[in-house]
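Lecture notes, unit on protein representations.

Consider one protein chain, 240 amino acids long.
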Amino acid sequence: MRSCPPTSSAAGFKVLALDDVCYGPVDLQQLIDWARDERLMADTWVFCVTTQRWQKAAHLPQLRELFSELEPPEVALAAQDAGPGTPVRPGILRRVRVLAELNDEQLGEVARVGEVVRLPAFTTVVRTGLVGDSLFFVIDGQVRLRITVKEREILIAVQEAGGVFGQISMFDGGPRVTDAVTDSPVTLFKVSSVAFKQLCAHRPDIGTPVLLALGRTLATRIRTDDRHLTELVTLNQSGY
């Protein structure tokens, strides 16, 4: 876990966000405001200067009662495989990194074009070779992206809360290049390629930042894959 810069005890708290950036120091009222605005989730890590401890926000004594009053995400989200129009609170989508630049109104538009899918652990969400027609944002849980070579699983990436997968097929309409398997119970926000493209066409103020963010995620994967390929070639040429 990334460490935070030192601060005075009067400041109170620091918050570790999904982007692995530590925000603070902030006081208790700021935490309460963030929680009510869904910028601070129950499972967000918070550092208490007084106790010198990291705890999840819902476990902090100062916030425990507040989170018990707030409607939990599972209640706000619709049942598995609910269709477009499901009443998803826009704040839930704040945990998705590629949507981080959107404001409340824009998140509301995104929420209206997708659907919530909740799946148990060890479920195959997408399968290699099948035509892909949807983009998946991970709200809770963990999804493993893999390929299988000669019955051997090769891990490509792991997407946790805040991550996204399915963007390659969304861009080119081609078959899936990896399997996506849940490592734990997951909550996904699924957007069809058609709905996403329509949203981008009608709301470029939403589409542009999201497409750029998706492009950055793909660029990161390509750089990682290129580095691994270079290492393999180097080892092969060295005779290992």
